[in-house]
Design a protein that fits this description.
The chain is of the alpha/beta class. It contains ten helices and eight strands. The chain has a single domain, classed as Rossmann fold (3-Layer(aba) Sandwich). Strands 3-2-1-4-5-6-7-8 form an eight-stranded mixed β-sheet, with helices on both faces.
């Protein structure tokens, strides 16, 4: 097909000073979009803008932690003030505060939910207000996670936030359809600061960074695990006209793997005349719906 062309479009990418967010910003710019880079670290944001500019792109930066309505509105204003409009909001900013449930503090929980869940909500709300004013549609691209799809040990806060983001995408797909605005979640699996602590991945990430050793097929195909650049093409595609019929979806990508995640759905049903007593459920469970109990958790890498 023809090359993805984002010329004349403007995107905000939160958490784009490094890692996945930087890869997204660079891919959007390479396709022709003007980009607002966001990071809590002003130097990282400035360095990202320079990388984009050196490659012939147009970018501006705003160093602000996402979460508040004020930060979200400032990001939209940065796009409009510098480039005249806003066409895509890519929410990528995130933090981790991993602990098992009985050791997780209120602050651990609130910090992660503030950045991931509330930050996504406030940034998307501000972006949608601008897109609806423009009346030309738009693209909402948010960051989900396998943890939000399946749960993950030690990540009550993170998994809850990412599951909430997936639910918001499905809701926004309905609410924004008449305005021509699509909303989708990217479920990335890539070498980042968040994944380098996984023992199965760590030596491969180190070999890539220190010696340029490519990831083996067991990672790229078997686990769908790759570099941030492997994920960035999906973001550029979802920001383009070519994705106009795609909305409300959770799309996985990593390494050589592209996947579509299912939505929650009833997998087994049983009926009892007059309703269900506790005793009736106990008797029926093992021979009816109990046979379809679902798995949970992210499977350990099998390299």
């Amino acid at each position: 097909m023809d090359r993805i062309d984002l010329s004349g479009r403007v995107a905000v990418v939160t958490g784009s000073g490094r890692g996945l967010g930087l890869a997204y910003a660079r891919a959007l710019s390479a396709a022709g979009a003007s980009v607002v880079v966001n990071d809590v670290d002003p130097q990282a944001a400035a360095d990202a803008v320079k990388l984009i500019a050196d490659a012939g792109g147009r970018a501006a930066s705003l160093a602000v932690p996402v979460g508040t309505a004020e930060a979200a509105e400032a990001l939209v204003a940065c796009a409009v003030d510098n480039f005249g409009r806003l066409d895509a909001m890519v929410t990528n900013a995130g933090v981790l505060r991993d602990r098992v449930l009985w050791k997780m503090t209120d602050e651990d929980f609130d910090t992660v939910v503030q950045v991931h869940l509330r930050g996504t909500f406030t940034c998307v709300r501000a972006a949608v207000e601008r897109m609806r004013e423009q009346g030309e549609g738009g693209r909402i691209i948010v960051a989900g996670s396998p943890a939000g799809q399946r749960g993950n040990f030690g990540q009550t806060n993170y998994a809850a936030a990412k599951a909430g983001i997936a639910a918001m995408v499905r809701t926004w797909a309905m609410e924004l359809a008449r305005a021509g605005i699509t909303a989708n979640a990217v479920i990335p699996v890539a070498a980042t600061a968040m994944t380098r602590t996984v023992p199965a991945f760590a030596p491969h990430i180190e070999a890539l960074e220190q010696h340029g050793t490519p990831f083996p097929d067991g990672l790229r195909k078997g686990e769908g695990f790759g570099t941030p650049e492997d994920v960035a093409g999906l973001v550029a595609f979802l920001a383009s006209e070519a994705s106009g019929a795609i909305t409300g979806q959770c799309i996985g990508i990593g390494g050589d793997k592209l996947a579509l995640w299912s939505h929650p759905a009833e997998v087994a049903v049983a009926y009892a005349d007059g309703g269900w007593s506790a005793e009736a459920i106990a008797a029926a469970w093992p021979v009816s719906v109990g046979r379809a109990q679902q798995t949970y958790g992210i499977p350990a890498p099998q390299l």
